[in-house]
């Protein structure tokens, strides 16, 4: 808070009535006033929204993993089918003793 003296020399005593507040200087020294929001958001609704988004991401990841595993199993089954078909052909050409 800055104070300005009414043109009094420093050597003289200054009483309280001689002091005058400089309002502009006082406001310039203070940080700006930021008004508070009139409505505080409900923290539980924010958590619900975040949880719902998290749940959707987890479901999507689960579905992607399920699809990947199903495709992998189908691919392995096809490879196994081809292997046994070749083995049958081999065994028919070269029967065991």
From TrEMBL:
Superkingdom assignment: Eukaryota
Region (Disordered) location: 25-46
Protein name: Uncharacterized protein
Taxon lineage: Eukaryota, Viridiplantae, Streptophyta, Embryophyta, Tracheophyta
């Amino acid at each position: 808070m800055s104070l300005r003296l009414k043109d009094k020399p420093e050597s003289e005593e200054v009483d309280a009535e001689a002091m005058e507040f400089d309002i502009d200087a006082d406001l310039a020294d203070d940080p700006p006033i930021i008004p508070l929001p009139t409505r505080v958001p409900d923290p539980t609704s924010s958590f619900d929204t975040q949880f719902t988004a998290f749940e959707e991401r987890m479901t999507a990841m689960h579905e992607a993993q399920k699809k990947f595993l199903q495709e992998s199993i189908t691919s392995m089954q096809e490879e196994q089918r081809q292997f046994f078909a070749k083995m049958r052909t081999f065994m028919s050409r070269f029967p065991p003793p």
